[in-house]
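Backbone-to-sequence.
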């Protein structure tokens, strides 16, 4: 089983990283899992230009030549996609949004059609505002619609308020660890 993590925070030692690290510890405790961590902030991912080339014959890959070509291959090969993001302005981070927009090339009705179907999604979020956090709810609602459209399956969601730094929030770290174990057992 392959698990691909799309890490969308610019802070590699911040709250989202702490939550993700604990989740991955839970994952790595299980046998037969291949984990790959992508730091989106370090990738060259240009914004989708809406040219629709990917949806016209001969349905080739995205015509923008940047790191997305390699990432698309990894997405196609993986079983589980983990999206880890801070909530920025009631939404996902810009780093993750660039990546999500470019998934358009894998979601047309020809060419790569169906290559995302059946894959599993996990959403990890941190946010400063208190619970229940309306930004986190909007993020999950958007992913629910994305998953329905792409026939994907959301198998785990964890949102944590970072007013107490996540690395000091043992309850949140435990929840992330257990979620990591669970998504592999499913
Ligand atoms: C540009 C920006 C926008 C933010 N917008 C929100 C928001 O809409 N709602 C919220 O609860 N927190 C918001 N926050 C706070 C972050 O989500 C929070 O501090 C998060 O834990 C940061 O994660 P990190 O440590 O991985 O960077 C924002 C922070 C920044 C820098």
């Amino acid at each position: 089983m392959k698990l691909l993590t799309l890490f969308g925070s610019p802070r590699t030692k911040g709250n989202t990283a702490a939550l993700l690290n604990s989740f991955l510890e839970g994952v790595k405790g299980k046998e037969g899992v291949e984990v790959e961590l992508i730091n989106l902030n370090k990738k060259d991912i240009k914004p989708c230009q809406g040219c629709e080339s990917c949806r016209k014959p001969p349905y080739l890959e995205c015509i923008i030549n940047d790191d997305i070509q390699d990432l698309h291959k990894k997405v196609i090969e993986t079983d589980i996609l983990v999206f880890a993001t801070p909530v920025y302005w009631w939404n996902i981070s810009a780093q993750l949004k660039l990546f999500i927009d470019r998934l358009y090339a894998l979601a047309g009705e020809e060419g790569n059609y169906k290559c995302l179907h059946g894959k599993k999604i996990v959403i990890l979020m941190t946010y400063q505002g208190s619970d229940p956090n309306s930004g986190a709810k909007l993020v999950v609602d958007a992913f629910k619609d994305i998953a329905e459209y792409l026939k994907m399956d959301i198998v785990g969601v964890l949102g944590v308020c970072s007013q107490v730094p996540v690395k000091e929030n043992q309850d949140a770290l435990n929840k992330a660890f257990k979620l990591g174990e669970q998504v592999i057992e499913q």
